[in-house]
Design a protein that fits this description.
9 helices; alpha/beta; binds zinc ion; 7-stranded mixed beta sheet; 2 domains; Metallo-beta-lactamase, Chain A; 16 strands
Length: about 300
């Protein structure tokens, strides 16, 4: 699978960072998914190989503007491309009303079917090669995290097993590798699964929205990747006269270490940190507690998994 960070700034865009959006292209798929859609997400997409034509599903974490105001323009532009592939949008209660109202008032008609589905916490949505679970996060309005889990892959062809079963090397190997069952010259039947190694576990990615309790992802301990906000340094958060419900770098480091997250990508940084020195301070603060692989997201950064 491949992830592209389209926006990594909190609240407002900066010269180097747009507001929240993340693209995910599933393993062996030319279609792709979008998580959140801050304003100008469609502009960011123009700088990537991703085409709106192939956008299949959108997942919205919450209805704050920096996560959703790009939706309307993006839907309209996808219509201009005359994409007829249906589009599904998942998100919290109110999303349907927000979309319907804007579409009605601006008389937007789309050439494709748009299915809006308002989700609740604890759902598991099955999509064939992957499933997406919703979890309730803790923010000033209803906000969901999405847990993306790939289906397990069948085990690889196990040469040792095949030899032990006395299968002669040659065309019979090829047929088993293609998933067929065969009959040996001595009449024994060998099923494809008899010569496969252990199934390979699908990978799991935790995608947070805005949230001041990263430990809410604890049921998914050991996940391959967690993408989560780290809006403030602890000392700046402590001085804020009004506390917004966001996670600090220190908090994220502690939670990710406790949950044994294999790889952590921090994102959604306050615009006040928009220079390298200050980003370094965020990295160091997460590092005080987290020992896994750590990356600070930047716009248009791509990760293969
Ligand atoms: Zn936000
Ligand atoms: Zn928010």
């Amino acid at each position: 699978m491949e992830l592209t960070f389209l926006g990594t700034s909190a609240g407002v865009p900066t010269r180097r960072r747009n507001v929240s959006a993340l693209a995910l292209r599933p393993r062996q798929s030319s279609n792709w998914l979008l998580f959140d859609c801050g304003e100008a997400t469609q502009h960011q997409l123009l700088k990537t190989p991703l085409s709106l034509y192939r956008l299949q599903r959108i997942f919205i974490t919450h209805l704050h503007g920096d996560h959703v105001y790009g939706l309307f323009g993006l839907l309209a532009s996808r219509g201009m491309l005359m994409s007829e592939m249906p589009l599904e949008i998942y998100g919290p209660t109110g999303l349907q009303e927000m979309l319907q109202t804007v579409m009605r008032l601006s008389q937007l008609r789309l050439p494709y079917d748009l299915a809006v589905r308002e989700v609740s916490a604890g759902e598991s949505l099955a999509f064939g090669d992957y499933r997406i679970e919703t979890i309730a996060l803790h923010h000033s309005i209803t906000c969901y995290g999405y847990v993306y889990t790939e289906a397990d892959l069948p085990g690889r062809f196990d040469l040792e097993k095949a030899r032990k079963l006395g299968i002669p090397e040659g065309p019979l190997f090829g047929r088993l590798q293609r998933g067929e069952s065969i009959t040996l010259p001595d009449g024994r039947r060998v099923e494809n699964r008899d010569v496969l190694g252990a199934p390979r576990a699908g990978r799991r990615v935790l995608i947070g929205g805005d949230n001041d309790r990263p430990e809410l992802f604890a049921p998914y301990r050991g996940a391959d990747l967690m993408i989560h906000e780290a809006t403030y340094l602890q000392k700046d958060f402590d001085r804020l006269p009004r506390k917004f419900m966001h996670t600090t770098a220190r908090q994220l480091g502690i939670a990710a270490e406790k949950m044994a997250i294999k790889r952590l990508v921090a994102t959604h940084f306050s615009p006040r940190y928009d220079n390298e020195k200050k980003m370094k301070a965020i990295e160091e603060e997460i590092r005080e507690n987290y020992r896994g692989e750590l990356t600070l997201a930047s716009d248009l950064m791509r990760i293969g998994l």
